[in-house]
């Protein structure tokens, strides 16, 4: 079996992970987490989101996070921008890379960002065109590509035209989300077979939540199909406040353990990521879901 020799990981813990915590985390702890991940070699880190503060209170300190971030030429720091106002706030606070987001399910999109899919695409078109004019790098997410917490299974054919619109608008990278962690490898294969007929493999990233334990199996399917970009979150933190029941992303430690064991390079130091997560676990006062981290604690 042929696998990519190198994989690029987008670390989403500080955003996807921390947005879902019930207790407020102070900005200093968030910054320490982000800087520790950068020091571990994470080259793409989603740091925060400029969404409506009442929609996701954990991200209300986005401006403070961005203004106190140590810039590092080796790291692309990405912030989530849901609309024009989000982009303006991101630019004011020095963002050089943003992520826009929509979904393949109408109901989820409506609950998440109060817009139909079409309205959100029109909104994204404006945001993206302004961002690109300012030389800002843009990632575009499509959530609920496999299943929706409200509508159930999603037909993969629904994802294709949305991907097309986002890539036509000029997105540098498209992240295909299994927001509620329901996909199985055959579904991943079916969707990728469709997408790869039309879109360059270098622009596609996979974003798996691990609610039902199929996350790494889904990554393996992606690897077998040549995909070399994956999202994960340190410690396995995460979830979306508008996707009830969804648990964290695949844990960066578990992903690194698997990839490095398979001889695939990532440029990331697993021990240092684990250290960052263990420190955060102390701040949160609980054990994090990463299986790799748990073996460290049991010294198995
Ligand atoms: P809305 O209420 O429809 O917005 O929310 P609005 O335009 O009607 O404005 C209402 C008020 O919000 C106004 O203030 C605006 O100024 C303010 P007022 O005049 O009443 O004082 N407002 C803002 N304030 C700060 N920053 C902004 C902003 N926008 C409006 N950017 C909106 C629509 C999209 C803003 C809201 O629904 C929202 O912020 N949603 C974000 C939800 C979210 O963050 N979800 C989690 C991230 S997505 C995810 O996790 C999935 C992903 O991981 C992939 C996967 O797993 O599938 C990416
Ligand atoms: Mg997510």
Give a description of the structure:
The chain is of the alpha/beta class and 300 residues long. It has a single domain (8-78, 138-164, 173-299), classed as TIM Barrel. It has twelve helices and ten strands. It has helices spanning 13-17, 27-39, 62-68, 84-92, 106-113, 117-133, 159-169, 185-198, 215-224, 252-261, 270-284, 291-298, and strands spanning 8-11, 44-49, 76-80, 97-103, 137-143, 147-148, 152-153, 173-178, 204-208, 229-232. Strands 1-2-3-4-5-8-9-10 form an eight-stranded parallel barrel, surrounded by seven helices. The protein has a two-stranded antiparallel ribbon with strand order 6-7. Bound molecules: 3-hydroxy-3-methylglutaryl-coenzyme A and magnesium ion (MG). Magnesium ion binds at residues 16, 177, 179, 207, 209, 240.
Short key terms for the protein model shown above:
single chain; 300 residues; alpha/beta; two-stranded antiparallel ribbon; globular; binds 3-hydroxy-3-methylglutaryl-coenzyme A; binds magnesium ion
**Structural class label:** alpha/beta
Please provide the count of β strands.
10
Largest sheet: 8 strands, parallel, barrel
What is the typical, i.e. mean, pLDDT?
Answer: 96
Say what the CATH topology is: TIM Barrel
What overall form do the CA principal axes indicate? globular
How do the helices and strands follow one another from N- to C-terminus? EHHEHEHEHHEEEHEHEHEHHH
Fourth-tier CATH superfamily name: Aldolase class I
Estimate percent helicity: 40-55%
Unreliable stretches covering 5 or more consecutive residues: none
Cα-atom radius of gyration: 18 Å
